[in-house]
């Protein structure tokens, strides 16, 4: 089988497609023949070595994949069954989806939901699952379309673009924050009613700014998140799921105690199975069919490493889909 293998030499991460066998795979009770994977921000950091994602080499990256069961010791899964996987440390500390086969724990797998196939599942991928969990967090915080505008930062990325499409489909007025003018038409097609430059959120925010947003989905962190918090309406909710702009948070308690703002962290790596299934069912129901054509850039496994560099250099819009087979 072919796999993208990360190795380390003199402190540098080297990525190359190599031929492996099933015997090389790490322990697990289900072997999956992988058809599709994707490139996420975390994958790009791992492949380029620009983030301390991988601590044990060699490693096959890829935090999500979709395919068919090749062999299973888990009674919940059978040969030929379509499955998908996102999270659980796969592609970080357990060999992941950028390979023609993976051996994983059955607990990590989700049977392919009705209405999806492998390709569509990976167009959604970890990014889409995270976006849906963010939308669910806003809903659970009481934010409805009647509450007011919702802002999405990092809107041209995988999580952000899916969040824009989901929120628009659910009837919310969406403002998209993007650093690239070339993405504006794409974001409008996804449903953004307003597009704001990232530079408007990169400065040092005052503890409180003019109230503007009922809800927010933040993929950036750092000064961008601090600016968003300062602009939230009374009883607003921010779903924070990323740190593309940094992991610091230079803010004060004032938005929280004077405006009753809620900052809700959103994790998709270790989300319990019932909530995962709920999120996948919502994704199938809410995402319009046009999303699958608009939000995808497809590459073969041999171009995954090059695409990872492009993703980090902000040269990619939407979701990068990897055709493994």
In brief, what are we looking at here?
This protein has 325 residues and is an alpha/beta fold. It has helices at 41-48, 118-140, 158-169, 184-190, 222-230, 254-258, 273-286, 289-294, 304-312; strands at residues 2-9, 12-19, 30-39, 64-72, 82-86, 101-104, 109-111, 150-152, 174-178, 194-197, 213-218, 232-240, 262-265, 296-300, 319-323. The N and C termini lie close together (10 Å).
Can you characterise this structure?
- The protein has 325 residues and is of the alpha/beta class.
- The protein is built from nine helices and 15 strands.
- Strands 3, 4, 5, 6, 7, 14 and 15 form a seven-stranded mixed sheet that branches.
- Helix 2 (118-140) crosses helix 3 (158-169) and helix 2 (118-140) crosses helix 7 (273-286).
- The longest helix has 23 residues, at 118-140.
- It is globular.
- The N and C termini lie close together (10 Å).
What keyword list fits this structure?
325 residues; alpha/beta; 6-stranded parallel β-sheet; 29% helix; 27% strand
Structure classification: alpha/beta
Average predicted confidence as pLDDT:
94
**Binned strand content:** 25-35%
Q: Biggest β-sheet: count, sense, barrel? A: 7 strands, mixed
Which shape, going by the Cα principal axes?
Answer: globular
Report the order of strands and helices.
Answer: EEEHEEEEHEHEHEEHEHEHHEHE
Helix content: 25-40%
Report low-confidence residues grouped into runs of 5 or more: none
Radius of gyration: 20 Å
- Our measurement of the CA-to-CA distance between the termini, rounded to an integer number of angstroms, reads 10 Å
Number of helices: 9
Total DSSP E strands: 15
